[in-house]
Amino acid sequence: MNIKDLYYFQRLISTQSYTQTAADFHVSQPTISQAIKRLERHFQVTLFFRQAKTKALVLTPSGQQLLLAANDITSNWQHVNESISHLRQHTLRLGVEPAIGEHYLPALTRPIIEKDLLDSVHTVEMGANQLVKQVLAGQLDLAISGNLDQTLDERLAVTPLRPFEFKILSHPDHPFAQLEHPTFKDALQYPFVILNATYLNKLVFHQLTEQLSIEPQVLFESDNSNLISGLVRENMALGFVSDITTAPIDGLVKLPINDVQIPSVHINLIRRSHQFPIGLFKEVMDIVEQTFNADQG
Predict the structure, then answer these.
(1) pLDDT tens-digit readout, 122-139
(2) Distances in Å between the alpha carbon of 3 and those of 32, 38, 76, 84?
(3) What are phi and psi of 93, to 5 degrees?
(4) For the segment 12-30, what is each residue's pLDDT rounded down to a tens digit?
(5) Which three-class secondary structure string do you get for the chain?
């Protein structure tokens, strides 16, 4: 069976036209017809039939199954081609979530330079959701991302690097910080400043407020952790921060959250599950894991 036959089959079902499919691939119409016949002979089934009134191509159950499989096969085939191309060129695309990059990128860059890999590793920053999408689409080879554990796609291979911890950031003179046993419920009586949807902080924050069925007072959202700590320093609001923030917090207090169940969140090294860690790929994975192990040690 030729993989081109699967591409022809996919496009034919999408366009509903032999003529259009042939034009899209710059081949003759009989080429498309022969490809469909080869697939049907191979599987010994009828893949679709033409509806009498509308002339639409209607998939049989076997055709539906093949279309689902063809989508996976052609997607993986594209990723394999891209991966081998990068191996040939000795390049790797690494995505990093901004908050994680602030904290870890300097430590990661040092061994990359020492191993003379700086020209081979192309690093970009973007939010956690976008990182996952780009790894799945083959646009990134590796990503270092904070993820809610239950939201990760089964098509990803995931190496946990370290857990996140979330705390409430407060000015020491804020009424909340004066409480003997402050709770998250107590904190929600006051305005908050939080990181925006670029970070996981916002998602976790709203999951916690939903547990208490309390609508939070969000004074401001930003992608700048320094701005968040600055507003807390002015005693204008409370902050919701993770333990990897690099914003200066001298003179501020971090208070634990004990009265709600914090979702399990980890910094993960993620890749496509069928991507084998060899060559440059393995070198970079080793650098990432060693850097995080050293930080926790």
Answers:
(1) 999 988 888 988 998 888
(2) 13, 11, 12, 18
(3) -105, 115
(4) 999 999 999 999 999 999 9
(5) CCHHHHHHHHHHHHHCCHHHHHHHHCCCHHHHHHHHHHHHHHHCCCCEEECCCCCCEEECHHHHHHHHHHHHHHHHHHHHHHHHHHHHHCCEEEEECHHHHHHHHHHHHHHHHHCCCCCCEEEEECCHHHHHHHHHCCCCCEEEEEEEHHHCCCCEEEEEEEECCEEEEECCCCHHHHCCCCCHHHHCCCCEEEECCCCHHHHHHHHHHHHCCCCCCEEEEECCHHHHHHHHHCCCCEEEEECCCCCCCCCCEEECCCCCCCCCEEEEEEEECCCCCCCHHHHHHHHHHHHHHHHHC
Burial category of 134 from C-beta neighbours within 10 Å (exposed 0-12, middle 13-18, buried 19 and up):
middle
pLDDT tens profile 258-286 = 899 888 888 999 998 877 777 888 999 99
**Residue 235 CB-density burial (10 A; 0-12 exposed, 13-18 middle, 19+ buried):** middle
How open is the CA angle 195-140-199, to the nearest 5 degrees?
A: 5
**Per-residue pLDDT tens digits for 162-216:** 988 899 999 999 999 999 999 999 999 999 999 887 778 888 999 999 999 999 9
- Please report the pLDDT score of residue 3 as a whole number: 87
Helix axes 29-43, 18-25, angle to 10 degrees: 110
Query: What's the predicted TM-score (pTM) here?
Result: 0.65
The CA distance from 70 to 51, in Å, is 23
Helices 98-114 and 280-296: crossing angle, nearest 10°? 120
The two beta strands, 218-222 and 57-59, are unpaired
